[in-house]
Please model this.
Amino acid sequence: MTDFPQHPLQRLTTPIQFVKGVGPQLAPLLERLELRTASDLLFCFPRDYHDASRLLAIPDLQEDEPASVCGVVEEIDMQNTGTGKTLLGVLIRQDRWYLRALWFNQPYMRERFRRGHRVLLSGTPRFNGGRWEMVHPRVELLEGDRQPTSGSILPLYPLTEGLKQSHLRRVIGLAVDSYASCLEEVFPAAYLDAHGLLPIQAAVQQIHAPRDTASLAQARRRFIYQELLVLQLALALRKQQRGARSQTPPLPINAKIDARIRRLFPFELTPAQQQALQEITADMARPTPMNRLLQGDVGSGKTVVAEYSMLLAVAHGFQAAMMAPTEILARQHAATLQRDLRESRVRIRLLTGSLSAAQRRQTLAQIAAGEADLIVGTHALLQENIDLAKLALVVIDEQHKFGVNQRAALRRVGADPHYLVMTATPIPRTISMTLFGDLDVSLLREGPPGRAVVHTYLGTESQRGRWWEFFRKKLREGRQGYVIAPHVEASEDESVASVRQTFETLTSGELADFRLALMHGRLSADEKESVMRDFHGGQTQVLVATSVVEVGIDVPNATLMTIEDGERFGLAQLHQMRGRVSRGVHPGFVCVFAELKTEQARQRLEAFSRSNDGFELAETDFRLRGPGSLFSFQQHGLAPFRIADLVRDADVLAEARRHAQALVFDGAQLAQPEFARLRQMVNRRYGQALELADAG
Model:
């Protein structure tokens, strides 16, 4: 017999094989679920629950009222329907009453039943043909003489091949009985009381074997709140530690500098831009690094705000750098700066991966010698041999396309500068509070005056002819347009359009009389630049492209867009692409063709056609598709949640954020001895990912 440490905390590390009820045969199955210790079993949270709290006699059933029924399997009948599908019927007897359970096209369910065996069925009953029925009920096999308990709520755990719910319930139940008492509370008693939280031991017991729905809700809230609070504490600590350990040149604004910068803009700034600049300049006036996220809807004027901020750094004799995720966007930013600052003495340099060796050496020498005020680049700016000793501000465009490690590399090439990170992808509030929770946020929700509205339509196949007729009419009037397809090459699904196929079809068909060009990510940098130069100059009337046009393409005369297979794009992506036709004074027109095979696709595209508000669409996309489709936790170095859900638990997240901010910044309560275990938990979960100093 192997001896294991008896200290309570050490007992929690008991290998899974030696936990009561497991053994050498069951252990490998549990390890597939990453359950390797006794502690892992305690925190293997159920994915759902089987509510048997309405355990009824068959005569007491009510139509469409969920309930559970216990009985004996009387008959098992498998039939093949005329369409080649199956119908399984299982007759359950309870005393002298009967209920029929039905499963359509699930022949594997047949193996779960044996005549004379007792079962617990849970579902929504209906009265049909003089008999009660349940369609696709949940099934609990009652082995031996085990009796169902009225009022029980049964946990449903994630499984793997060869592992049954009954096995996992039994093992976790035994683990809770043996090890829950070893758990140490991370919250002081006063904190638990103040926030209405169950103690850890009671919460573990109730989440696995709840007495009733109220106790289950309490247990789930305890762990959801704890998980979200730990993340928010980590983000607050990172913000605090950056400010404490970093020194950045203060760059105050004054009336003279402000007037010099504003003279370079031939337009008035919008109220939203003014507000954002007030927040940014206040940050940059401090000796600690600014870390601010600038969210702006398509066409809201983020670039102007960034340009003003960079010129503030230059006015104080420092350098500013702007990073873009693609070379196309970097070149466009450089061209915009060159145009806006042609009457100034500001020196702009472009640093991208496609520069020749000689050009790169020259540019690096100019940067090192202080002969470059504004540096625009791609990932090439992350190279360690770049001398950015006078760097005071970094602007990162399209924040979500850069990972944690990439942003950290910028800190290594010079002093810790001020950071302004931007995105034209409006970020749902809960995502902003998690992935970017250590950043202050400025919003630009309104666009510059004078921009025309964009009209969006969902097109059907029967309307294609009319749309192309309208498209050609606008081209003859002098406008330009885009045609977007989801893939470069033909897909295995022949119904999905490729950009090459679309280009060939249009050049010989609907748009044969017009000048078309092809644009996609596989073109070389020189090819892309040539295509975009011709499109900017009007030599090309229609750009047939993939979603590579999602960001950075600014052609005010392009007011038309056709999107093929629109269901293949997310809402945020569709909105970004639509933003390409809202850059000038002429009204824009977008038509999306799509196969609305799912309810989610229909809801997304109807929302897209109905609203031009990127923030509203981001919340809709988030609600329909979840966070994984928008931003990757892994990209940002954050572990996925075990029990919290950013859509469902948005209110708890907001609460946890308020409490975390108070613990870190209001009186430094988190530093008190009674919060030591909570600090240790923060470090264990997020210390490495978020580069935290030891908070324990």
User: Anything to note?
Assistant: The CA atoms of residues 169 and 175 lie 10 Å apart. The two ends are 37 Å apart (CA to CA).
